[in-house]
């Protein structure tokens, strides 16, 4: 039985037990296995690298139970129990050591000492715990990004457990080369490496890696610049004035609404609610950065809002509206799942619209954002105003948005100078 009650010199009973970390509103069919430490009625938990379904864990005995004849699953269950027994033994030794000092201590002290002894989480275990935290915070997009990164790393490692302590530059370089050989683009590789680095750095700051290890130092993880396409005024007029019906008209309206609202991102449009619109002004907090925005509606944007105004929904635009009354009784996870599906649908509709209009440039909500920035620059609006309008923290980011346009202006000037 993986439960160890003890009683120390200060009368503080210490309970060490393995259990499942279950949240009532989680949508996963498996849950992290944690080591629970209770002392002085205060609790601390240490995450393990393992996850189990509810029926695979005996809560009274604190151990995993095989519920299938699958050899691989039975091997996994056995591995979980071996891990639990070993870690509980380590915790028991830590409690004994702390009691011998004669000083009182807490459950957190025991957990901290466990980490200090070098009993560290594996890469998969720490990733899983971080994913769970993000899900609980409602940051489903960030959780999904880490999920994809972890899957890629597990394929690279062949499913073998890798300790955070063993992560070094050669391992990261091998992971990077593996991703390139798998045919992934440079931007996708950079995406995975940057996510891995952020999680690893967090584990270091929390004390799960000892020493001054910097496996990512000197290894570039920034993505390559992609060509930023902005629509010309003539093409923008063709898009806004096209005679459309049905879903394509809806996608076009959303594209134009983004443009009219200073390049509002698709995710911010999706979650925009009527309570955010007051006296002809949109007040919203950008989901990517947390910045508070105030956008006064121009007549064309107001027309689009009026077109999609409906009763029974708190959402301004049709992106997240469900078959029933939207915005009530739905979890953030359910809304996010719908958001992902609708984002893909509207991207497809815009791509189809660009082909039907015989446009030489693609259509996307990112293009709407770049179009606003480029058109503002052509109108002589200062870089600082454009940067503030887009919500960029520095003008450096805005310059990246406008780089293609600035290069074209220089090329045009060169043609004038060279034509002597």
Describe this structure in words.
The chain has 420 residues and is of the alpha+beta class. The protein has three domains: 3-119, no CATH class; 125-205; 233-364, no CATH class. Helix content is 51%, strand content 12%. It contains 14 helices and nine strands. It starts with a strand and ends with a helix. Residues 324-328 have low confidence and may be disordered.
Notable traits:
3 domains; 420 residues; single chain
Low-confidence stretches: 324-328
Q: Major beta sheet, specifics?
A: 4 strands, antiparallel
The termini sit apart by 91 Å
Rounded mean pLDDT is 82
What is the H/E order? EEEEEEHHHHHHHHHEEEHHHHH
Summed up, the domain count is 3
Q: How many whole angstroms does the radius of gyration measure?
A: 27 Å
**Principal-axes shape call:** elongated
């Amino acid at each position: 039985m993986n439960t160890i009650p003890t009683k120390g010199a200060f009368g503080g009973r210490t309970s060490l037990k393995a259990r499942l970390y279950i949240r009532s509103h989680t949508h996963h069919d498996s849950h992290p296995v944690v080591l629970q430490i209770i002392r002085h009625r205060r609790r601390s938990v240490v995450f393990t690298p393992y996850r189990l379904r509810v029926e695979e864990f005996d809560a009274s005995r604190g151990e995993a139970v095989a519920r299938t004849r699958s050899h691989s699953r039975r091997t996994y269950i056995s591995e979980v129990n071996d891990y639990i027994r070993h870690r509980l033994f380590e915790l028991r030794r830590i409690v004994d050591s702390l009691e011998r000092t004669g000083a009182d201590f807490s459950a957190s002290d025991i957990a901290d000492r466990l980490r200090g002894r070098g009993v560290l989480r594996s890469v998969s275990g720490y990733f899983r715990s971080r994913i769970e935290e993000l899900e609980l915070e409602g940051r489903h997009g960030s959780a999904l990004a880490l999920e994809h990164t972890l899957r890629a790393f597990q394929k690279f490692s062949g499913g073998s457990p890798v300790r955070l302590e063993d992560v070094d530059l050669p391992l990261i370089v091998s992971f990077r080369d593996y991703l390139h050989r798998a045919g992934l683009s440079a931007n996708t590789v950079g995406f995975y490496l940057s996510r891995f680095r952020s999680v690893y750095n967090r584990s270091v700051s929390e004390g799960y890696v000892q020493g001054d290890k910097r496996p990512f130092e000197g290894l570039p993880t920034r993505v390559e610049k992609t060509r930023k396409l902005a629509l010309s005024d003539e093409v923008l007029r063709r898009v806004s004035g096209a005679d459309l019906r049905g879903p394509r008209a809806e996608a076009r309206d959303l594209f134009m609404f983004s443009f009219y609202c200073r390049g509002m991102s698709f995710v911010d449009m999706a979650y925009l609610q009527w309570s955010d619109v007051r006296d002809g002004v949109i007040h919203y907090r950008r989901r990517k950065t947390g910045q508070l925005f105030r956008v006064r509606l121009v007549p064309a944007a107001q027309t689009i809002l009026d077109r999609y105004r409906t009763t029974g929904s708190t959402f301004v635009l049709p992106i997240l509206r469900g078959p029933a009354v939207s915005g009530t009784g739905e979890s953030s996870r359910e809304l996010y799942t719908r958001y992902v599906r609708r984002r893909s649908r509207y991207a497809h509709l815009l791509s189809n619209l660009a082909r039907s209009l015989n446009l030489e440039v693609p259509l996307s909500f990112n293009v709407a954002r770049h179009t606003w920035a480029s058109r503002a620059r052509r109108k002589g609006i200062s870089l600082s105003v454009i940067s503030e309008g887009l919500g960029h923290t520095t003008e450096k980011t805005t310059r990246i948005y406008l780089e293609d346009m600035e290069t074209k202006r220089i090329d045009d000037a060169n043609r004038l100078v060279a034509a002597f």
